[in-house]
Write a structure and sequence with these properties.
The protein has about 650 residues and is of the alpha+beta class. The chain folds into four domains: about 260 residues, Sandwich (Jelly Rolls), CATH 2.60.120.200; about 30 residues; about 100 residues, Phosphorylase Kinase, domain 1 (2-Layer Sandwich), CATH 3.30.200.20; about 240 residues, Orthogonal Bundle (Transferase(Phosphotransferase), domain 1). Strands 1, 3, 4, 9, 14, 15, 16 and 18 form an eight-stranded antiparallel β-sheet that branches. Strands 2, 5, 6, 10, 11, 12, 13 and 17 form an eight-stranded antiparallel β-sheet that branches. A hairpin with a 2-residue loop joins β23 and β24. α6 runs antiparallel to α11. The N terminus and C terminus are likely disordered.
């Protein structure tokens, strides 16, 4: 045994030396006795026993040999390549594959020499997978494993036979393969065989040879592979060693008895001295300062200069530019006693300007706040409609962002619906504390008119993008005024949508397609209007839960459930206590559901909504079950205009339902 080993080593280093061994890493293991055990890591169903690498267990108990997979690897990774330099290596080993006697079925499944990034054995990699990959990772480019398999079972249609070698890359399916049947060598023969794998990192070639016994001969390789650059498939440092497996029926003992491995020492990446790191750090700091300075200069050049008369609408007919001192005086220097409300972008104060009651919105001085001020001035400042809040003026001075609106005596819709603290009002239903049904109906009609004007009657199309109860203000006669145009966008009428990287709007009022496409359209405004109609008719918040069913998370699902159960009248605000036109209230709820259809192509336009509200068109068809949201949205099979006319008060079958 010792003599054969010495002969083998001599042959490797002299006769078949493919490496420049003046600079090599050499691993020499004539056996695997106790002194060498610390050099290896055994994973899965493997162990070092009987002075051999038992890549799958050999514990003298044949019943334990089924469905095994294991790996035994050298404990430290080796440098295979760096930059454009790829190392050459020689892996020569003596192995023995022994079929288990008195077992039904052929031996299986095989042994492999592997180069891998990961030590661990893949889960469920027994049988045909040889401990290399499993069914879910087979063929994945992220596995970073190359194997030279010695296969003893034809497990796949592409396998040559049950006695072949192959080169596998990130897969159990061999890229190159050759049968051993013509050589007189049988892998699973219970005889010792010697395998030699020579890889030339310069020429990018690999030669695989198999010999009987412990001797390396001058026979030609059984498999020669050209144009194989391992740096394309493996990380720079890899673990080297062996993997093997057995199956449920086909079993065998997979042992490695000797191993000689040499690889070019191409060195580690050069270490940078401390003074080098200091120079690099200082250079990075200077570079970052230069980039930051350039970015700040760029932002300064692009910053809107609103201190002067730079906005195009400031020409004597648009909103007036106020001085900061005048607005401070009008609001008692922004006194807390003058606060009307707080929002995400600022605080609103009550004030008097030029003898007129006004509401002054103090916007947070942020890039987003400045963007909202510009949006308000350039959109609502050029619009005039009885159901839009009038923007009287603006101010941008000493980093203060201020907008001046006409004063709304009855404040916002959500205040009257929910109370001062934002909770559902428990006040007694009187003329002063509860919005009557007539007022609520007029509010929805007013908002619908405002949106119809923005979508269809302006010179340029305007998308509001933030319709909600808190943005609906009520004048002294409880007429609705749509306000807060900070998120609004204006564009040419031939365009169909406005795209943005940031999703804008208020949760509960946002259409489902917004989260998928980021495109604001008239249909997304219609969806928000539908939610508002449900809120006004039911008195609930968009995110309110049904007390009897915690799975209902929003007002749309809650109202739709009542509709499908034939109890839609139960969705009407109980604070009204029957003091409303129940048929009209049901119609508003159904109109809201139609506007909230998950399919934007099936939502009515604001023009059609107006026709329904004034009694010139029939209610759109509303399915009893809420449709599922799918994208792309299916095309409608009918139009709302196909319905017979008759208006709200003529709807009988739809409202009575089931």
């Amino acid at each position: 045994m010792a003599q054969s080993c010495r002969f083998l080593v001599l042959t490797l280093l002299v006769s078949f030396g493919a490496l420049n061994c003046a600079s090599c890493l050499n691993l020499t293991y004539p056996d695997f006795s106790e002194e060498y055990k610390g050099d290896f890591k055994d994973k899965g169903n493997s162990a070092i026993v009987k002075e051999a690498l038992q890549v799958t267990y050999d514990l003298n108990d044949d019943t334990l040999l089924t469905d095994l997979s294991g790996r035994i690897l050298y404990k430290n990774p080796v440098r295979l390549w760096k930059k454009k330099q790829v190392a050459s290596f020689n892996s020569t080993f003596v192995f023995n594959v022994s079929p288990v006697k008195n077992r039904v079925g052929a031996p299986g499944d095989g042994l492999a020499f592997i180069l891998t990034e990961e030590m661990e054995v893949p889960h469920n990699s027994m049988g045909q997978w040889l401990g290399i990959v499993n069914v879910s990772t087979n063929g994945s480019s992220h596995r970073s494993i190359v194997a030279i398999e010695f296969d003893t079972k034809k497990s796949f249609p592409d396998d040559l036979d049950n006695n072949h070698v192959g080169l596998n890359i990130n897969s159990i399916n061999s890229r190159n393969k050759a049968s051993l049947n013509s050589t007189g060598i049988t892998i699973a023969s219970e005889r010792n065989l010697t395998a030699m794998i020579l890889y030339d990192g310069v020429k990018k070639t690999m030669n695989i040879s198999v010999f009987k016994g412990h001797f390396v001969l001058a026979d030609p390789p059984v498999l020669s592979i050209s144009d194989i650059d391992l740096s394309k498939y493996l990380v720079g440092k890899v673990y080297v060693g062996f993997s093997a497996s057995t199956g449920a029926v086909s079993v065998e003992r997979n042992c490695v008895l000797e191993w000689y491995f040499s690889i070019d020492d191409i060195g580690e990446d050069p270490k940078i001295p401390i003074w080098g790191w200091i120079i690099i750090s200082v250079s990075i700091v200077f570079a970052l300062c230069g980039v930051l300075g350039g970015w700040l200069f760029f932002c300064y050049k692009r910053k809107p200069k609103l201190d002067g008369h730079d906005l195009p609408i400031i020409s004597g007919v648009g909103p007036k530019k106020f001085k900061l001192k005048d607005l401070k005086g009008a609001t008692g220097n922004f006194s807390e006693n003058r606060e009307l409300g707080r929002g995400a972008f600022g605080i609103v104060y009550k004030g008097t300007v030029e003898g007129r009651l006004v509401a002054v919105k103090r916007i947070k001085n942020t890039p987003k706040g400045l963007q909202n001020l510009v949006a308000e001035v350039t959109t609502i400042g050029s619009l005039h409609h009885k159901n839009l809040v009038e923007l009287i003026g603006w101010c941008y001075e000493d980093r203060e962002l201020l907008l001046v609106y006409e004063y709304m005596h009855n404040r916002s819709l959500d205040t009257l619906l929910y109370g001062e603290d934002g909770k559902l009002s428990e006040a007694k239903p009187t003329q002063d504390t509860t919005l009557s049904w007539k007022k609520r109906y007029n509010v929805i009609c007013g908002v619908a008119q405002a949106l119809d004007y923005l979508h269809n009657e302006c010179l340029k199309r305007v998308l509001h993008r933030d319709i909600k109860a808190s943005n609906i203000l009520l004048d002294s006669d409880f007429n609705a005024r749509l306000g807060d145009f900070g998120l609004a966008r204006m564009f040419k009428r031939e365009k169909t949508h406005y795209s943005t990287k940031e999703i804008a709007g208020t949760p509960g009022y946002m259409a489902p397609e917004l989260f998928l496409t980021g495109k604001a359209t008239t249909e997304t405004d219609v969806f928000a209007f539908g939610v508002l109609a449900l809120v006004v008719a039911s008195g609930r918040k968009p995110g309110s839960q049904n007390e009897d069913d915690e799975s209902i998370q929003n007002i749309i699902d809650w109202v739709w459930q009542h509709y499908s159960m034939g109890t839609i009248s139960n969705a009407i605000d109980p604070k009204l206590k029957g003091n409303c036109d129940e048929r009209q209230a049901k119609c508003m709820l159904l109109l809201g559901l139609a506007c909230c259809n998950p399919n934007p192509n099936l939502r009515p336009s604001m023009g059609y909504v107006m026709q329904v509200l004034i009694g010139e068109a029939s209610l759109p068809q509303v399915p009893f079950e809420k449709p599922a949201f799918v994208w792309p949205a299916p095309s409608p099979s009918f139009t709302h205009e196909d319905s017979s006319s008759g208006g709200v008060l003529s709807i009988i079958t739809t409202l009575d339902g089931r």
